[in-house]
Amino acid sequence: MIKPDFSSMTRIELRAYVIAHPNDKAAFHAFVDRFTSEASTETFDIPKTNSEVEEVEMLIRQKLEQFKTK
After folding, report:
1. Which Pfam families does the record match to this protein (predicted)?
2. Residues contacting residue 28 through CB under 8 Å, at least 6 positions apart
């Protein structure tokens, strides 16, 4: 069996392959490597007050709404 070239796959294709082949550890590692290399390195402090928690909740809701409209 010939192994697919994970580096030539798009992220969507690689994700689909990993889902279709859950026991393929090499595919899983390739997907995780690609996901982490493309992820933002931005970090945020943990909210400390109720108003900060509420602000974070509002920002999360706004982001979720943006995804719904795409």
Report:
1. DUF6887 (PF21826)
2. 18, 22
CA–CA distance, 53 with 51 (Å, rounded to integer): 5
Sorting pLDDT into bands at 50, 70 and 90, what band is 52? very high
| DSSP states of 1-63 | -PPP-GGGS-HHHHHHHHHH-TT-HHHHHHHHHHHHHHS-----PPP-SHHHHHHHHHHHHHH
Give yes or no for a contact between 60 and 68, defined as CB atoms under 8 angstroms apart: no
Please state, in angstroms and rounded to a whole number, the distance separating the CA atoms of residues 31 and 33: 5
